[in-house]
TrEMBL record:
The keyword Mitochondrion applies. Residues 1-24, 48-79, 217-244, 250-269 are annotated as: Disordered. Residues 8-24 have a biased composition (Low complexity). It comes from Aspergillus pseudotamarii. May be involved in protection from oxidative damage. This is Oxidation resistance protein 1. Residues 110-347 form the TLDc domain. GO terms for biological process: response to oxidative stress. Belongs to the OXR1 family. One of its GO terms (cellular component) is nucleus. Transmembrane segments: none annotated. It is found in: Mitochondrion. It holds the Pfam family TLD.
Amino acid sequence: MSSTELPSSASSSRSASRSRQSNSQIHQSAASYFSYPVTHVVSGLYRRLTDPPASKPKNNMNRNQHSMTSPNGSTASSQIFTPVRTASPFQPPPLTPLTLTGDLSNLQEQLLTRALAEEIRLLVPARLQLVDTWRLAYSLDRDGASLATLYENCREMSHRSPRAGYVLIVRDASPSGAVFGAYMTDPPHPDSHYYGTGECFLWRASVLAPPTNLNLPRDGPPSEAMLELAGLPPPPSADTTHAGRSTTLRARDAKLAPPPTSGLPSGASTPERIRFKAFPYSGVNDYMMFCETGFLSLGGGDGHYGLWIDSSLEKGVSAGCQTFGNEPLSDEGVKFDILSVEVWYVGA
């Protein structure tokens, strides 16, 4: 063998060994690359499970206690400045007093007074509380005792606004002179189905006698009956679950048939004290309004009408119904005789 062949064979063996080393390094790096995440996760879980819980340094606890307690023993919460809360200056403007309009000159007696209208106004939808003018759509004294005329007048008034409301007022023949009725979201008209929305409600109102000769006990708190006669609110311990709404408003032309005022000096004027009670929609059923050519009705359920009026506007029925959860509206009982009826338009 010649001397020139030895170096070539040595160089080839060295290159082969280097290539084997590089290949092994590549395989090792690839294996370590894929095995590293698994090893890292396993080792991290092992440390988390085996390491003891770290204890808080005492200096931090002392610092927190020092920050929570001042040298004079008072807590930090007592040293925090709390500003005085004041009412927001942005309050809604007061409602404009109502104006009752229409052809009122031909009326012998107007059922709706401004004091009663203000009570009903508080329960109508908010969009209609801003309306400060109510218009008389129908009156039995002016237009005659006809349910068809009532339907026609309400239909004509509904052309003003489709989102208007209507207030029905009925006076019966009871000696108390109370009036009652309903707020209707739609103009009453004959239909084969119930209509109206949950904004409908029934109501009743009466004028309370002025307090006279009240003998309040001297050695104890006055009874709830005495407070009611005096126009004062009941005590906080009284049960007011079923209490009616009583409001004192002064009305110049009050015609809500006030009770006799015997015992008062001649010429004495007393404010009109109205007891107003409303029965809103209960949500039990959707029997709000149902009208035909022969009757007008509101509320229903279990075979009872909340308010029912015949076509001649002479007879009526009022019983407790599920729609409004009301009591009978008339003091005469379930059935009553009608003396007068009005419908007022509430809208633009």
